[in-house]
Amino acid sequence: MNWNDLELFLAIAEAGTLAGAARTLRVNHSTVFRRLNALEADLDTRLFERQPEGYALTPAGEKMLAPARQAQAAVQSIELDIAGQDLQAEGAVRLTAAPNIARTLVPPAVRALRDSHPGIRLEILVGDNDYDLGRRQADIALRATVRPPEQLVGRRLADLAWWVCRPAMLGDDPPAGLQDLTGRPVIGADSTLMRLNAFQWLEDHHATDIVARANDLTTMGALARAGVGYALLPADQVEPGLDRLFTIPGIEGQLWLLTHPDLRRVRRIDAVWNALVETTHRGLG
Asked: Which CATH architecture has domain 3-82?
């Protein structure tokens, strides 16, 4: 058994539910469920009784509670004694985000941090490629995905509808819905964006209608404004000069804030995390 197992056990014991433990640990509900089953299988005993109102400790779980809390106190003591530099809200933090997110949602957070934590220096890595947080290529990611990596801890900040867009004030009759989009020019994505469900859908249903491709949402919007074709864009990307026509049923993106588990208690990471949560909610609210 390792510390992550004890941390999971304590989170469930204190919250009484898997959902509460997931919020504490900043992971998915399914991850907590899977890890608890694996822990109980390793120990060959049940630690919790599954009840309609939540999870209650079994006698074995009760016996494990006090030693687990002692271990938690020991770990926290080590963090205070050895990792004191991480308790200071200062230093460099590397944030990665796609170009549209970096341009619209990140600047308000940077401005807020300059007022609240002037000792933090944010380094912004912009690109549609996913920097590897596991290898510490970045500390925090603002990432549009519906499948955040399970090895990271995260928080879903928003659901983002995808819109079919065209130039504003265009004279011809716009398509009334998906049935009218066939045969009209559309702008597709290259392979780097095929991880997004919206572009997988576009490829499956309108591959023969694609007249241009781009690996950047901002460029897709610019192509649409120039009249090249219809663009499929997330709600946060639709700018002046474009009209939203209709959404794609069943296609919804998610915006996640992610970091590595080893960094979640570092003060400067927490400060940036909280600033991004607050300003993103205002920006997308």
From this structure: Orthogonal Bundle (1.10)
